[in-house]
Amino acid sequence: MTTRRRSTALIGDDNKVVAGGKTVTWRTLHKLPQLPSPAAVLVDNGADALAAVRHHAVHGTELLVATTSRVDLSMREELADSGFAIVIAKGDEHSVEPAKLKRVEESGRAWLLTSGSTGRPTRIGHTLESLTTVTNQQQPRTWLLPYSPGTYAWWQVVTISLTQADQGLVVIEPSELEIWPSIAAAHGVTAASGTPTFWRQTIYRDTDALTKVPLEQITLGGEPVDQTILDRLRELFPKARISWIYASSEVGASIVVHDGKAGFPKAWLDRKPTGERPALSVAGDELVIASPHHGAGMDGAVHTGDRVEFVDDRVLITGRLDSDEINVGGSKVSAGVVRSVLLAHPGVAWARVFARKAPLVGRMVAAEVVANPNLGPITADDLVQWCSHRLPDYGVPRRIKLLDEIPQKETLKSDV
């Protein structure tokens, strides 16, 4: 018989939760019936995902929660072959496909799906303790929850509300992303976490609606964070604390910066880890982290696959190693640096920079750009000229495509 443990105190059980048009508390969320364990609970809405998490916290089951869109039939087969029952949750109703492999459950284990270098989802194991990285008592806040259920960033916001008093949640479904500021304002949201793309998208759509949200805490993460978006948010919310976080399913929340600057201080490298503080280092151009919040089997120094550059006394995270560096005829340029130059143009709301095949030099720099709708029209030639004054010749984008909308994936990220 499996002995299960309730691993984290549910201090937030009476916190307000707004989901699916209803206002409840963690305690009064609709209750899932006793689920098999291990179970992969697939959901189409935030309320079902939160119900699965509370069930897991109360009963100590082994859980993976994700949206149905992230788990295709092949992945379902893979999970079933690994001992997971597949649970399709829809409110008070659910269906269960039994696991194909019977194995001993890992009590209290919470699994996250992350895309590896091949784009194929892989599983990273955590517990509620390792996912709960905010442990100091927090001032009362109401948090926006726009992330896709089951992602690391989603768990970060969820655990704050579940384990801290006076930390409400307002769940934003994918269909509500375009109007989230009005929902947030109506429910008094004071804290919101999102990717840089999420914040750019919101500013692009309706700046006036955004400024009506009484934000006191703004957090960015999930993508490289540049100075332009930090400065824009500071302009819109001069009294809010603006933070950016480097976090991943593998190493957890490892870098937290509150000083309003992109990157982190170079002095943080090679410091001795103490308590909750990770060890940060650079090998070649790659960020290496040993984190106390790591996933199962990820202890010790982990090569993150993220590329860094040193600018003055800061360490900037520019993008993935396998895509950030562009070799133009033997001269190398960072796609992240070029992107930051483009984003610094007042007429640019969003940009993506990538390599494109070219005669003679093999590769050239190319970009996609969304213009700022509040300013006059810009052309590709305008942007080429802007970049030519700020980048070496080989780093200037030679092909720039203007898009009508900022692309955004289910994870709130774009392909940057």
TrEMBL record:
<dbReference type="Pfam" id="PF13193">
    <property type="entry name" value="AMP-binding_C"/>
</dbReference>
<dbReference type="InterPro" id="IPR000873">
    <property type="entry name" value="AMP-dep_synth/lig_dom"/>
</dbReference>
<dbReference type="GO" id="GO:0016874">
    <property type="term" value="F:ligase activity"/>
</dbReference>
<dbReference type="InterPro" id="IPR045851">
    <property type="entry name" value="AMP-bd_C_sf"/>
</dbReference>
<dbReference type="Pfam" id="PF00501">
    <property type="entry name" value="AMP-binding"/>
</dbReference>
<keyword id="KW-0436">Ligase</keyword>
<protein>
    <submittedName>
        <fullName>Fatty acid--CoA ligase family protein</fullName>
    </submittedName>
</protein>
<feature type="domain" description="AMP-dependent synthetase/ligase">
    <location>
        <begin position="97"/>
        <end position="263"/>
    </location>
</feature>
<feature type="domain" description="AMP-binding enzyme C-terminal">
    <location>
        <begin position="340"/>
        <end position="411"/>
    </location>
</feature>
<dbReference type="InterPro" id="IPR025110">
    <property type="entry name" value="AMP-bd_C"/>
</dbReference>
<comment type="similarity">
    <text>Belongs to the ATP-dependent AMP-binding enzyme family.</text>
</comment>
<dbReference type="InterPro" id="IPR042099">
    <property type="entry name" value="ANL_N_sf"/>
</dbReference>
